[in-house]
Amino acid sequence: xxxxxxxxxxxxxxxxxxxxxxxxxxxxxxxxxxxxxxxxxxxxxxxxxxxxxxxxxxxxxxxxxxxxxxxxxxxxxxxxxxxxxxxxxxxxx
Length: 93
What we know:
The chain is 19% helix and 24% strand. By secondary structure, it is of the alpha+beta class. The protein has a two-stranded antiparallel ribbon with strand order 1-6. The radius of gyration is 15 Å and the shape is globular.
């Protein structure tokens, strides 16, 4: 499930929100990981979804109680969100 930074940056949040019937899409990335291995529980029986041509699995469910505030340029510097996922990170050193 590799994709490039350019593919990620090209994703259109408004179009994705409309396609997936969401209130909004906020792109949190691209990111880099420094662990040696990672494993996650796949939701939806491992279903692969094409997101503007990028294959993705659903690995978490995030509830955002105030979407307008979260997406606002005036949002607080830290907002605690509950992320429902099972993830194991392994660091060998």
